[in-house]
Predict the 3D structure of the following.
Amino acid sequence: MNIAIIGTGYVGLVTGVCLADRGNHVICVDVDEQKVFAMKGGKIPIYEPGLEEIFKENIQDKRLFFTTSLEEAFKESHLIFLALPTPSGQDGSADLSHVLDVAQAIGKSLKEYKVIVNKSTVPVGTSEKVRDSISQQSRGAPFDVVSNPEFLREGFAVEDFQKPSRIIIGSGSECAVELMRKLYKPYTDRGIPLLVMKERSAELTKYAANAFLATKITFINEMANFCDLTGADIDSVRLGMGYDGRIGHRFLFPGIGYGGSCFPKDVKALISSGKELGYDFQILQTVEAVNKKQKVLLADKLLKYFKGSLKDKKIALWGLSFKANTDDIREASSLDIIEKLLLSGAKISAFDPVAMNNVKKHIGKRIHYTEDMYEALSGAHALLILTEWSEFSQPDFKRILDKIDQKVIFDGRNLLDPKEMKDLGFYYEGIGRKINR
Ligand SMILES: NC(=O)c1ccc[n+]([C@@H]2O[C@H](COP(=O)([O-])OP(=O)(O)OC[C@H]3O[C@@H](n4cnc5c(N)ncnc54)[C@H](O)[C@@H]3O)[C@@H](O)[C@H]2O)c1
């Protein structure tokens, strides 16, 4: 099929690359000229495991193209995917301006039947708004709008796109649904379920899934905090809970709060949609409030350890991205922790395998960056582990001991073994598994 993808971020680029890899002719559009220029030259703008290889292959095989011109992409495409940002507005509601602006532009160019597929996460009722925006400009040209929410996880985006747990299609148009079934046939042939539902249900499914996952993380974080007070061990508790098939082991790992470009904004947007209709999402408001505290919990623990002041203290940070295997730092807890530590007088030395450039753009020279994880420890009074990168879970303790000034580790991802830390003489605190009591 001939496909246009509007917006080449984490969702759009992965969608474009993977659909090209299935043999489709894909043209990706972005307003960011530098990004498009780089991609035309074969340079990938984001880090996502496995993506670069298939990105390059499909450019070479002439199935994957890039442009800044919506009209150019639009001309030859039957399916137009919207993978545009829907950030939080001032009041927490999803800002639909990118989606609706593009819908208007599509309306202006529309001549023959096309299907506009929305992959962005959008509030219930957005498909109708998109349809209205297109209709206002399209002078009666035929089209359909489909809601096809995306569930990929950053860090596993290629794997998730190629082997999705399910494909959701929201549409009342038989013709559009047929086209979507054809597009996804290579996936459904492998047994992947494709659920057809009302547009509104498809839109809400995405928010409901993200809000549930944010709630599950927040729940286990609260249990971990309670473990810290009671002496119970969260690792035992989460394992004991997880064997109950109704609960499951996944998403039961305590840490420093959820971040990223999805959960925070989607929880906010759902609360806001509820308010518009006079519905009070109490559970989600609490999730948000608990998560806000959890994001700086490790800084609070560190401050308590150093009796309220970090003046003249050098703190090493391992990990800056909001989770492992991504360079995405949107709403990362590391950013909140850095601000709190700087405010308390600390000097910070940080290392991340792929996210440092993004943090430099955001925080600049207010902290020191090192190219090596052990270098960050040089003269440090404490190490904070903020992202669950695998290299942090089995470090070379001899190299740590050579570099670090005080044997103090606060582990925001529970990567290290508390007993081993104690045996090595470290003061060690994780989340919900404190042993130095
Ligand atoms: N990132 C994820 O893990 C994920 C997962 C599922 C769903 N989503 C949803 O998918 C949507 C996109 O998310 P993302 O993380 O890929 O965003 P992103 O910020 O990484 O990328 C968006 C891209 O759209 C481009 N863009 C903005 N306005 C444009 C326009 N008018 N025309 C063309 N391009 C334009 C930007 O330059 C950028 O490259 C959001 O609604 C998000 O909630 C994201």
In short: Residues 6-12, 29-32, 35, 83-86, 98, 101-102, 119-121, 150, 152, 154, 261-262 surround nicotinamide-adenine-dinucleotide (CB under 6 Å).
